[in-house]
Design a protein that fits this description.
Blueprint (H helix, E strand, L loop, with lengths): L2 E3 L6 E3 L3 E2 L13 H13 L4 E3 L8 H13 L6 E6 L16 H15 L6 E5 L3 H4 L2 H13 L5 E4 L6 H5 L6 E7 L11 H8 L2 E5 L28 H17 L7 H10 L6 E2 L6 H8 L18
Parallel strand pairs: 3-4, 4-5, 5-6, 6-7, 7-8, 8-9, 9-10
Antiparallel strand pairs: 1-2
Length: about 300
Amino acid sequence: MKYRRLGSTELKVSVVGVGTWQFGGAWGKDFTQDEVDLILDKAHELGINLLDTAECYGHHLSESFIGNYVSRRKSRNDWVIATKFGHNHADRNNPSKNYWSAEEVLKQLDDSLLSLKTDYIDLYQFHSGTDEDFDNDALWTALDKQVQAGKVRNLGISISRNDNIYQTDKATQVNAKALQVVYNRLDQAPEQEVFPSCERQDLGVLARVPLASGFLSGKYKPGTVFPSNDVRSNRDQEQSQARLRAVEEIRANEVPQGVDMAEWALAWCLKHSAVTCVIPGCKSPEQVESNARAASFDWVNDSHPQAWKG
């Protein structure tokens, strides 16, 4: 495994992390604690140390799986835990609540700490809120106080649109040290404005959906029809087929012969000088192992500007 500095923080993060959206049951599979334990055991064995979750992944369910694992292994210092705030899915139909208010977010923070069974969160991220939600001085003031109190080590922003330059440009003003964004071979929009802004501000970048929701996994051919319990079945089918045809062209023209496409796609993201870490999801220890092999590509090396030197 290789490691990079996360922006201007002192966090040493593996270039491949574990995205844990799936632990909340959103992939049509309900995970058990034993299954999560095996996945995280394999991640730890391979040197992966960054776990990305959110309070809305199964309403703290993903966080609870992680907290139960880390607390039993007594290995908190081995992990960089990133979680997010802003979407209380257990009570989202209550029109009287503003889930982005300082008061509500501090409640979410305490619930996340409880679920994660930890005293602090390494990276606490504003999660896909609107620009209006973002422009809330009371919220950022309250979060700064949590940083001073030690409950949060670093603040971050997870932008909902991968071209949201407004929130990106204001990251340093709100004391955010990292940005999370959709980035993959099929979706390169962040390269235009978002990544240059991140580099100017020395923000760490977590690249989410690096396999384009599985389209870049190499498993699917044009003509594939996703089953009704698969979230990809809800997408425009014409657009999905166009993406599958694009993937076939990439496989033929860009992926070296004999190289696993998913591993190549993750390593492709890590070539960009702004990207610190990719955070693919995984359903099994075998997928964790495949993801980790992306770190072995020649271009994932110490010449990267954020390569860990400590």
